[in-house]
Design a protein that fits this description.
Pfam families: Hexapep (PF00132). The chain is α/β, with parallel strands linked by helices and 184 residues long. 21% of the residues lie in helices and 28% in strands.
Length: 184
């Protein structure tokens, strides 16, 4: 199993792993594409094509991504249909960020699927844990979603929240760390 598959499966990967050369090559290529996407004028169709190149997959035409858009990797972002991602989103996606359908994402939202070890002698190693956003979720502005979190169907995450654990379906959570506010 190559490094990309291991990262999607929640692996601990040493910074010395030779597979990181493959990761670095993709990051280098996508950094240039991201810069082009965010800094140059493009039609909507051209923006969509650049996003597909960054993510290395088709994106449903009903999904919209507002610029600027940021990722530290790209190919491990999986978007559903009819999603709206507002300006200045950040995807730390080596561990996988999965969207269902009909997702609303406010501005300045960060999705993080990686963490580093606490042991300072191995601090550069990474632990991956995918993020899952189920159908009909609304994520407010300035939210951070941490590795391993699943946000259940129809949930709402209030602006400024830091989501450290799973969010149940049909609930509203707010705060840092995010906590249950009410059922929907």
């Amino acid at each position: 199993m190559d490094i990309l598959e291991r990262l999607l499966k929640g692996a601990h990967v040493s910074a010395a792993d030779p597979g990181f050369e493959k990761v670095s090559a993709i990051i280098d290529k996508n950094s240039l594409l991201e810069q082009d996407l965010n800094c140059n004028r493009h039609t909507h169709a051209e923006q969509h094509q650049l996003l597909e190149k960054i993510m290395q997959q088709k994106i449903d035409p009903t999904t919209q991504v507002s610029l600027p858009f940021h990722t530290d990797f790209g190919p491990h972002i999986f978007l559903g249909k009819n999603c709206f991602i507002n300006k200045n989103s950040m995807f730390v996606d080596l561990g996988g960020v999965y969207f269902g359908n009909h997702i609303l994402v406010g501005p300045n939202v960060t999705f993080t699927s990686l963490n580093h070890t606490l042991d300072p002698t191995h601090r550069w190693d990474v632990n991956s844990a995918s993020v899952h956003i189920e159908d009909n979720v609304w994520i407010g502005a300035d939210v951070t979603i941490l590795p391993g979190v699943t946000v259940g169907k129809n949930a709402v995450i209030g602006a400024g929240s830091v989501v450290t654990k799973d969010v149940k379906a049909n609930t509203v959570v707010v705060g840092s760390p995010a906590h249950f506010l009410k059922a929907i």
